[in-house]
Structures are given as C-alpha cells and as structure tokens.
Structure prediction request, 523 residues.
Amino acid sequence: MHSVTEKTKRHLIIFIFPILIFSCTQPEPTDLTKVSIIPIPITVEATGSAYTITSETVIYLSESNDETKNVAAYLSNLLHPATGFDFKIELSENEPKAGIYLALTSENNELGTEGYELEVTEDIMKLSANQPEGLFRGVQTLRQLLPADIEAQSVQNQQWQVATGKIVDYPEYEHRGSMLDVSRHFFSKEDVKRYIDLIAAYKMNRLHLHLADDQGWRIEIKSWPNLTVHGGKTEVGGGDGGFYTQEDYKEIVQYAAERYIMIIPEIDMPGHTNAALSSYPELNCSGEAPELYTGTEVGFSTLCTDKEITYKFVDDVISELATLTPGPYIHVGGDESHVTAMEDYIPFINRVQEIVMSHNKKMIGWDEVVNAELDSSTIVQYWSEADNAVMAINQGAKVIMSPAYKAYLDMQYDSASRLGQNWAAYIEVDEAYQWDLASLNATITRDNIIGIEAPLWSETIETMDDIEYLMFPRIMGYAEIGWSPVKLRNWEEYKMRLAAQSSRLKIMQVDYYPSTKVPWVTN
Ligand code: TNX
Prediction:
C-alpha cells in the first residue's frame, strides 16, 4: 500500500533529486579513507569533499610525448564508455585551475619508477609521478575511487565523484605478476589481452607465458616450423590447440607494454617437451618421434641432452624468442625433468644458460635449475622446494616467489571447487592472502626476493570464464602482497575491502569465485 505522502516522496526523488544534483554547488561530502582500494596504498589522507568529472572535464598533460599521451588516451578510453564524455587531452606545462592533470615530476624520489601521488580537490584531480609508468599505476587507483559503474560499457546516468584528499603510493616489490599456461589448453590472443587488462587493474607488471609443454607448442618459430604446424595442433583432452604467430605475439607484447606489463616467455626444457619431440624426430635420443600427448601426466619427456642438434634447436628457438622480447628475461623452465639423469641435466642447464646470455638475456628457471651452476644474473622461481630457493640464494641468485601451496592459482579453493587441482593444497581466499613473501623461510629474506608470481596452470580450464573463476578473487590478494608493505596488510580489514569490490567485478563481468570467507557487498 502506497500512501499519498509516499507517492509524493517518490515524486520528489524522481523530479527534485536530479535538479539538486545538477544545480548544486556543494558536492556531497565523501571520505577518501573509506574507499576500498586494492592493493592498499601507502598513505591516504581525506579532506572530506569531492571532485566531480563532467562532460567539460579536460585531461591535461604536463609534458606531451608518446608515453604520456598513451596514458592519457588509456584514461580517456577507460572513462568514456560509462560517462559518455569525450575528453579533450591538452598540454599544460603549468598546473591548470581545474580538470584532471597528469604531471611528470622529479620532486619525490621515494615514488621510484612506478609510484604516484594523487591529490584531489574540489577543482582538480592531480596525478603526479616520476615516470609515465607511475601515472599508469595511479590511473588504476583513480579508477577504483570512482563509482563501480565506471566499469560499465554503456552510458550510466549518474554523478562521477571522487573523494578529495591525497594518496602517496609505490610498490614494495619490483616484480609482481602472474603466469598463464597456454600450452595445456590454448587461449586466444583476445583472452590473453583480457588477462593483461585484469592484472593491470591491480598494478601487476609481469605476465609470464608458459608457451611450450608436453601438450602443445604455442609460439611460431620460423626456423623450426613444424613445432607449431604439428606440435600446436592439439591440447589436453584432444581438442583443437592453436598457437600465436610471431605477429600475434608482437601484438600481445605491445598490448602489455602499453599497460606497463613485461611479457616473460617460457619454453620449458629439457622435460615438458613432448610437443617438440613429436614435431622433430631428431630431437629424440631414439631418433623416433612420439605421438602428440593430450593427457595430464608430467615428467615423462626429455630432449636428448647429448645430441648437438639439441643445442642448435635451443639456440634457434631462444634467438627468435629473444628478438620478439623487449624485456630482459627468457624463462627456460627446467622443472620436473624426471627422465633426464642429473648428470645430463646439469650440463644441459649450464649450456642453456650460456645460450640465453649470448642473446643478451637473463635466464629464469623453476627452482630445480639450482642444481646447475648459476650465473649471478639468473633468477630462480621458487615453486616447489624451499631448499632449492635457499641453494639459489647461496649461489647469489635472486628469487621469484611462487610457492605452489600458497601462490598457485590452479589449486582448488576447497574440495567442492568446480575447477583446479589439489596436489599442493586447497587455497581459500584467506589462505592466498595471509602470508608474507619474506617470512616463509629464514634464509629467503627480503633482499633475496624480487617479487611474486601467481601461476595459472591450465590442465583443468578451457575458457576465459574458467580462468576468471580460479584467478578471482585470489589474484587481487597476490597483487596486494606484491605491492603493499606487510605492515599494512591484515585479512580482517582486507576482506572488507575485497567485499566492497563485488559490484565492480560484476560490472567488469569477471566470473569470480564467491568465497564464503568474504562478506560480499551486493549493492
Ligand atoms: C607442476 S609448477 C608443474 C606444472 C603443472 C602444475 C599443476 C611446475 C614448475 N610444474 O607442469 O602444470 O604442477 O599444478
């Protein structure tokens, strides 16, 4: 039953409220310290008012070059679909009176290359950083300060307010990333781009692509064409596989670079090589090519480490990959080579390391590579044995932290999870968040760690929805572990911030796992 007064009230809301919104000069008071931001910034101060983005808002740049223009265009493209506004981008060497101002400064050393400062008043939203990269990370914060509807892909009729105050923010670790296995199941270029967009939103800066394994070879190598023609044909379960042409791959690298994400290519060897062995019989000690493999066993394949052609192959592959890779790293796998004798494995890795370095790249390997003699530039990715990470450190190598029982995105959340494996652990959202890279082991200390990577192995996943279900929300916690200092991190507080992200994730159409550990806020 609606009374007359209730009807009148509704009319007031329908007719008077918009007039209030569009004619009012006083913005609604808002508290910047109450806004949910992931990863949590270093400092946030609120001044209790709001800045409003309107159709008149201009994006100003303090300096106009390809990179700053790219960040401004990225911001404009981010804001355009939901607001419907066409933002002008203009150069303004001096601070403008109003608008969004992207400023390069060299005033604050502690910001480093990725840090930023965001100052919001009722008139201006000023984002400053030492590098365009810092501006880009700051844009991701700005995004979370706006109402969740900013993520919508169609025009939303509402106010676009940002709480006033000041944020100063920079990362704890230089290396913050995820790995996607495109070998067990192949994922299209478009899927990889979405993956890049999703990790960029939480300020990650590395995407490691696992490009070759027993089940499929996914990157075109012009000097060994059968690797993809034959070796890329299928995947786990026997479905159609696929591969990236070098042109596709360059496009991925470029797309990532525009988001300040480095692509780290991995060709796993000497094990995990059935797809290559099946494509070229001469790489087998027997001289006979095995069938393509579509199961999920590991540890049964090996390159023939005492044939010279093997090193010609490795050199050709790494040479082409190095040419496609602007970043400093080539990942050579080295894990689970159970059928390679240790006396063959060690000289093989030593030689592969030389090959990588001869192409002016640094080698990364899974933690078993510590059995070889590592160069001081080599990086070890700890996934399995803490003792291996300790050996790496004793050899002077730095470590990427991906301990499977904490950081594997392909682990099931619990025994009822519809996807994933559980050989390392069940990893619920709280388990994924509540640990610190530098306190797992007494020898693996802060100074030896370059950062975190959360790997997503793809034995059990086939679609982007599947990816998102295992990735979210855990990836947001891994992003925070890499970005925010441990003293700012606390599960009880984090879970509230995470809960507040649910409408945003829904609007972004992220198919996240709705863990019962999180008190999700549904509008
Ligand atoms: C172990 S992690 C592997 C992968 C599997 C993964 C499944 C690592 C270096 N090797 O080959 O896909 O487990 O969780």
